[in-house]
């Protein structure tokens, strides 16, 4: 466990749930101290073997996570020395969430605060994800405004300049679930009702912007301006901590795939456009300076939050309330500038390299062979987490090894029914493919006596075939349960 923590992985990481559960179960079942022999070790790591192998072999995106955390701690101490800013609360909290590898926090990262304008990239990304770029940009522009974020100003086409200013965010609020009632719209988010009321009661400037937008016919024809404003106030009032905020940043850094759950929550196009506008418009009137000196997508809020994205590497949430005259966190800006002075993230060269490398059309033979090995190893080990990640990364799940065997062959041979269900039901791997000996995955499952796998494959191949015996019914009921879980 101590070695695990040094890699940046936490025992609370959902991806390690099975591993930690097995260790705790063994401790409960034993009256005295438990020594981990090879059998127990294999049982504990079996479902997470690929993640743990990468961790201990330092094959993560950030190989030496412990060294990174030492630098972060020093930067945190330096940021604490910054005394400028106008808010009395001098607290500073930072949490970084590296993709795949680890999580590191400094300060009291569980203290809640309002997202305020840091919600705008998320709102824009959700709108893009649901409606597409062409529809969204009928109502909002893409260029920096050159004015304050709450200015009553539109571009030459009578649209808000971009989604990162108040006018743009208010218009976007009218697009999301426009035909739902208030409760249904608000149920999309975790909201703080008291801060929402405060936001609404002191939102005269935003009401003025709303009526200005209505006069200029910036809203969709069926939109309710008051409802859009209320929804915008609710979004700004979402309460987060540095912990939860860093997951938002890491999801944007990961191309829309949540690094905790492995689920795609935003489309790649939505994330790409969001990061572009964060880069050019995300830091109020300081956006140009920030792009020049830091060169990474970021968004600040008047609560003192700074959401920083390092594409394909990590997401960072800083919170320190003292603000400069432009409304940005003094210590948050200092931390971001010091971060890039210590580490070379290659800015968007890194993003372009990642896209090129992971485009199947540009994959070399060596990369392809490595992909097959990783796929087969995950199927052999029953590592469903790794297989989910491969599927979300557009890996061909029907790749064959030198014996023409697929991952489905391997999982069926080993009796990993959850993997078999995932590969067939979710990835739609062809169950009729034969290896060089003429065997299908069903043949392999029958040969090694894995009855539940046999039933799962037969159910998938034949549909709802009639059950002739009670044993078959029981087996198929078990399969149906597993299928619903997967």
UniProtKB/TrEMBL annotation:
Entry keyword Repeat: yes
Record-annotated Glutaminase EF-hand domain positions: 2-63
Molecular-function annotations in GO: glutaminase activity
Example GO BP: glutamate biosynthetic process
Reactions performed catalytically: L-glutamine + H2O = L-glutamate + NH4(+)
InterPro entries reported in the protein's UniProt record: Ankyrin_rpt (IPR002110), Ankyrin_rpt-contain_sf (IPR036770), Beta-lactam/transpept-like (IPR012338), Glutaminase (IPR015868), Glutaminase_EF-hand (IPR041541)
Taxonomy, superkingdom: Eukaryota
Keyword terms, alphabetized: ANK repeat, Hydrolase, Repeat
ANK repeat spans: 403-425
Its EC number(s): 3.5.1.2
Similarity field: Belongs to the glutaminase family.
Subunit relationships: Homotetramer.
Protein's UniProt name: glutaminase
Organism: Sander lucioperca (Pike-perch)
């Amino acid at each position: 466990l101590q070695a695990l923590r040094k890699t940046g992985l936490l025992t609370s990481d959902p991806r390690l749930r099975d591993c930690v559960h097995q260790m705790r179960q063994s401790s409960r079942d034993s009256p005295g101290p438990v020594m981990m022999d090879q059998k127990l070790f294999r049982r504990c790591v079996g479902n997470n073997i690929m993640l743990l192998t990468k961790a201990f072999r330092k094959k993560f995106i950030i190989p030496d996570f412990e060294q990174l955390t030492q630098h972060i701690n020093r930067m945190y101490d330096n940021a604490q020395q910054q005394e400028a800013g106008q808010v009395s609360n001098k607290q500073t909290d930072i949490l970084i969430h590296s993709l795949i590898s680890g999580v590191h926090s400094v300060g009291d990262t569980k203290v809640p605060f309002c997202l305020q304008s840091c919600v705008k990239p998320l709102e824009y990304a959700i709108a893009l994800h649901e409606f597409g770029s062409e529809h969204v940009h009928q109502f909002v522009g893409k260029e920096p405004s050159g004015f304050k974020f709450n200015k009553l100003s539109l571009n030459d086409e009578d649209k808000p300049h971009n989604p990162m200013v108040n006018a743009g965010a208010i218009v976007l609020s009218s697009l999301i679930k426009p035909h739902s009632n208030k409760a249904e719209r608000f149920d999309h988010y975790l909201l703080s009702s008291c801060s929402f009321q405060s936001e609404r009661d002191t939102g005269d400037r935003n009401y003025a912007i709303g009526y200005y937008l209505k006069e200029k016919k910036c809203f969709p024809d069926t939109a309710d301006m008051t409802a859009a404003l209320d929804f915008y106030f609710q979004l700004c009032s979402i309460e987060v901590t540095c912990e939860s905020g860093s997951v938002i940043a890491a999801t944007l850094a990961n191309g829309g795939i949540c690094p905790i759950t492995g689920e795609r929550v935003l489309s790649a196009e939505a994330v790409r456009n969001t990061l572009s506008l964060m880069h050019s418009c995300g830091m109020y009137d300081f956006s140009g300076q920030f792009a020049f000196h830091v060169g990474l997508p970021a968004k600040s809020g008047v609560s003192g939050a700074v959401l920083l994205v390092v594409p394909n590497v990590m997401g960072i949430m800083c919170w320190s309330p003292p603000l400069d005259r432009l409304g940005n966190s003094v210590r948050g800006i200092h931390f971001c500038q010091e971060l890039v002075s210590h580490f070379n993230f290659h800015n968007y060269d890194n993003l372009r390299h990642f896209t090129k490398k992971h485009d199947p059309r540009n994959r070399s033979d060596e990369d392809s062979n490595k992909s097959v090995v990783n796929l087969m190893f995950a199927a052999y080990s029953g590592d469903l987490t790794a297989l989910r990640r491969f599927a979300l990364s557009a890996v061909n799940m029907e790749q064959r090894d030198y014996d023409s065997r697929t991952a489905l062959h391997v999982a069926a041979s080993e009796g990993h029914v959850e993997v078999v269900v995932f590969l067939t039901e979710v990835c739609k791997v062809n169950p009729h493919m034969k290896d060089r000996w003429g065997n299908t995955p069903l043949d392999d499952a029958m040969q090694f006596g894995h009855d539940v796998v046999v039933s799962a494959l037969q159910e998938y191949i034949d549909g709802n075939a009639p059950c002739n015996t009670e044993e078959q019914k029981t087996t198929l009921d078990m399969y149906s349960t597993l299928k619903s879980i997967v």
